[in-house]
Amino acid sequence: MHTRDEQLQAFDRLLTVMNDLREKCPWDRKQTFESLRQNTIEEANELSAAIIKNDMMEISKELGDVLLHIVFYSKIASETEEFDIADVCNRLCDKLIFRHPHVYGEEAAANAEEVSKLWEKVKLKEKDGNHTVLGGIPESLPTLVKAYRIQDKAANVGFDWEKREDVWEKVKEEISEFEAETKAAIPEGDNPTQEQKQLMEDELGDLLFALINMARLYHLKPDNALEKTNQKFISRFNYIERQAKEKGVSLNEMSLEEMEVLWQEAKKQ
After folding, report:
1. Could you give the angle at the alpha carbon of 152 between the alpha carbons of 148 and 154, nearest 5°?
2. Residue 234's pLDDT band (boundaries 50, 70, 90)?
């Protein structure tokens, strides 16, 4: 690993390269906050994918891409004297120090759970009482992540199950309600009305919310779990498709039973 001096030299090198690109490269010179925004979202998603794969070399590469965007935005802002990278770093440090009174102050926190509760308490104080508990959750968050953050924030101020095992009864209750609403809306294969779809959707939402709550209580990340299952399904389905091509048939020509045999083969692999 590198020394602190080497790390600082690397960061200084990055700032120098950014200055050169902004001055000498036509593409870099024309970029704005708005033009970079979508690329930033894509880079964050690529970092997330690398983390799911636990590919350290790829994580390092994607972290560099995200860092590039932070430096890029700061450089653009410095040209209009709005702020620069020093402001970004100092404001972040000030916020971290303020939100960690158990490290930089006289508060005490013996474990991660106590730190989370203290974090929410400090954030409310930071906004002079004009900040609601759930007000800081971005509207643009993916729905799965947003549900987790809503529940986490509510739990940090005491709105939570007394025993995590109790959440299983809630999950079972929501499954039963969703099943009952579905059977009532679609008897014998009939197409549901728009009103019936809405009722089923409401119950499905309640079920998903309960499952996410269960995941939180067992310290699981539902978005990570779902993405791993997505990748697992893609891998197994790709195996079925490759095998079908080797047999000279299309998937549409295969029976469900034939596909199931290949699916089981893929699982073994």
Report:
1. 120
2. very high
pLDDT given at position 77: 97
Assigned CATH for 126-221? 1.10.287.1080
d(CA 249, CA 264): 19
Whether the pLDDT of residue 128 is over 60: the answer is: no
pLDDT tens track for 84-104:
999 999 999 999 999 899 999
pLDDT at 129 > cutoff 60: no
- The CATH number of 4-97 is 1.10.287.1080
pTM of the model: 0.65
**182-188: average pLDDT:** 77
Domains in the chain: boundaries: 4-97, 126-221, 224-268
Taking the C-alpha atoms of 25, 27, 32 and 33 in order, what is their torsion angle to the nearest 10 degrees?
Answer: -100
Q: What tokens appear for 73 in the block?
A: 């935005």
